Amino acid sequence: MKKKVKTNIFKEIKKNPALFVMLIPGLLVLLANNYLPMPGILLAFKDYNYLDGFFGSEWVGFDNFKYLFTSEQAFIITRNTILYNVTFILISVTVALALAIALNELRNKRMAKIYQSIFFLPYFLSWVVVSYLVYSLLSSDQGVFNGILIALGKEPINWYTEAKFWPAILVIVNTWKWTGYDSIIYLAAIVGIDKSLYEAAAIDGAGKMRQIFSITIPTIMPVITILTLMKVGRIFYGDFGLFWNIPKNMGVLYNVTNVIDTYVYRALTQAGDIGMATASGLYQATVGFILVISANFIVRRFNKENALM
Prior knowledge:
Elements (H helix, E strand, L loop, with lengths): L1 H14 L1 H19 L10 E2 L5 H4 L1 E2 L3 H7 L4 H32 L3 H12 L6 H12 L5 H8 L14 H26 L3 H9 L4 H12 L1 H12 L7 H6 L8 H4 L2 H12 L2 H29 L7
Antiparallel strand pairs: 1-2
């Protein structure tokens, strides 16, 4: 079996050499970014010292992990990271899918392309730019929202000191930035569905909603599953740009905006604790790997075709 696989690979290389040459730059970037730094995992078990270097630093076992988990913020940052990501996953599956279906139903294809571009535009904006856009809305002095409240005869709100508003704000901002990207992926899968299936369903008397739930969603379920599994793998990762730039690093908001990534960054910049930062990264990667394998196993039990591997 192994010989047959190897033979097929060599045949593909001989058949399409240009495609494999084009693949080389991407593979080199992947190797440099994802695999060459892997020996740095050892720093999670060392008390790293700049003078002693990578090999000379003292081994401390799991002390770096103890520091991470015994911190007063351990429960808060873990809770925030998980709950926000679960919310983001649910929204990416529902809102983005609904948006993709709506775009596919547009009869005016020119307008559909314009809408796609509008929804996709936020994906290309950096979190720094987005943070200023949000600030223009929430600024206590000249913010748009406070201007509306004053015009209605109500008291303005100091948004950057009121923690109760920020879970909703972060979810809305993340949805605005990422939903367009996810919807384009779903739309690409929907466009590939055989039109004759819809024609046959229409002849049988199925309406649009019936067609969506009986044809569209079941057909693209493998794409939905793969995207969801990939997001599940990063459920212990917080989007650093979102949680750092949007709340403007306001200490009064830490209980609802602090996630593992921002906590580690603050520990790294304030205390220079590279060992703890590495331990956190290893912890996130390990848990993410376990979650992906577990979720994929569950999916395989119900439908092998929808599984990631």
